[in-house]
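Researcher: I'm preparing a figure for a lab meeting and need a structural model of a single chain. I don't have an experimental structure, so a prediction will have to do for now. The sequence is pasted below. Please return the structure as tokens so I can convert it later.
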Amino acid sequence: MQTNCALADTNVLIYSVQKKVNLKMEVSRLPELGKVFLPSSVFSELEGLARTNRDANIAMKLCAGFDMVKATKNGDDGVIEAAISTGCSIITNDNDLINRAKTLGIRTFSMRSSGLIEAI
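Model: Understood. Here is the structure written out token by token.
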């Protein structure tokens, strides 16, 4: 079980493309996050979005550099499942996911409009 790691959610990956933020570099600024992992549910979601969304397509290509964490559930449920199984924090801008994660005691981070990642 990891402790200095983070799971990237779909919306923060797309947002980092839109804001031209290097997610790996931004995460490396925060030692408590360490390495970024990608839940398989997020990759699947990006695959679907990439067919019609240019930013999702770019985000999916950028994800090639992330190690994958298997999730048997889809969407936010898969992100939560991956966080519980790995002990990683979650980086997301999704308020519903943030609230669910906090309720379960999972540490959450968000990417601000400046591109900086901050604990919530």
